[in-house]
Amino acid sequence: MKSPEPSLSLSEPHPQGVHAAQKGGFALAVLAVVYLLLAWAHLVPVNAALLAASLLGIVAGVIIYSLALYRNVPAGIKNNGVFTSSLTNRGLWGWVAGIVLTAFYVALYWFPETLGLGKDGNNTGLIALFDPLKRFFSGSNSTSQWFVYGTLYTVAILALGIKFMLKYRHNRYQLIRTSVVIASQLFLAYLIPEILEGLTTGQAYFAKDIKNIWPLNYYFFHDWHLNAMLEGGALGRLFLVAGIALFLIGAPVITYFAGKRWYCSWVCGCGGLAETAGDPFRQLSSKKVSAWKFERWMIHGVLALVVIMTAATLYGYFSGKSEIFGLSIYTYFQQPYAFFIGAAFSGVIGVGFYPVLGSRVWCRFGCPLAGYMGIIQRFKSRFRITTNGGQCISCGNCSTYCEMGIDVRAYAQKGQNIVRASCVGCGICAAVCPRGVLKLENGPEEGRINDNPISIGNDGIKLNGLS
Ligand code: SF4
Ligand code: SF4
Q1: What does pLDDT average to over the chain?
Q2: How many angstroms is it from 245 CA to the middle of ligand 2?
Q3: What is the pLDDT of residue 227?
Q4: H/E run at residue 451
Q5: Per-residue model confidence (pLDDT) at position 80
Q6: What is the average per-residue pLDDT within 328-350?
């Protein structure tokens, strides 16, 4: 197909044409989805190979579509049209997507039987569709809604992660970071846990995603989970020791040297989805000062709650009691945390509301691990974003696309280092800055926090508070 006639207008008001390859990629992804729907309705045969092929077909379709989309345009910032698209600007399609996603999460957490979860492995519907794949990994039919979710989650990060890399191909940091995001999800969160699950069939379940540490994994110290690790042989004890060591030593030490980005925007599953599937919605995060204040109360409040809940849990575990101060540990501590924070906040609101509140609602307002590392990042870390204020043209791209709602431009205009606790080091502010003002760096602690560098106001220009 002939390329669309190039426009001489800087603002490019003309809709871009759709290339034949884009149509081909779209058709391939749709065919794969149609096969899955037919298999779901038992109208075509299904086995592990066909399932895997159709999931890879979706990934291939998205890649072909994205290649055609970005191939004929120069590398660089590509956020054209985000504020005119109904999907990415809280329009009708944005709300439809938000409602569908939220409904899916509600079913996933609280009504899995509507997705086909049956008793004793007698699944139906969507969950039964994934039985052959589960059988391939573990030899059993014990597919749960979480296996289905994990598979779809991995497909989303793989397909949309590669699309993201094509979009930000001008930025080396994004290419390396997103490769790590994809590999972490594919191997650490999906394939390795599933293979280990298959090798330990018959043993009690414990979480085998080694990077999913407490307090993000809030049930790590719950009785059933601790017992499963302790009774899980060498593998169980390895996960127990690694989980504690990563939280106590690994997280603070790496955050000291590199900031919390090593986790939040490089290896975390929640962050991985936000950075890939959530990329079109990053501009929806609120930049209001009131949101920043709310954020600090919320994230540290959740951190306090998880510490209290876990302390009560460990007290119960070691004392053999089910109550603390006359309160049931399960009813008053574990269950409310699991319901309100573990399910409603991190899942339903955290992902379901991507098209309405932006992609990092959970990471910004709720994740207790982000809260813990954020305190270290703010007060005792070598990480900072340096700003070359003299180059800033105040376009505001950096603030607009900061998914954590940080008003990056306000720092850039003053030439002030950004050392905010909430910064996940995604590097998008630097990737969308047309002037190369921002740089993510690890350096000496000395001079890292420069509170009052250059201020330009009605009373003239001041350097470090002096005129
Ligand atoms: S300040 Fe920049 S690196 Fe930090 S979260 Fe915002 S966009 Fe990402
Ligand atoms: S994107 Fe760059 S030039 Fe634009 S406001 Fe931010 S720092 Fe300044």
Answers
A1: 93
A2: 39
A3: 98
A4: none
A5: 86
A6: 96
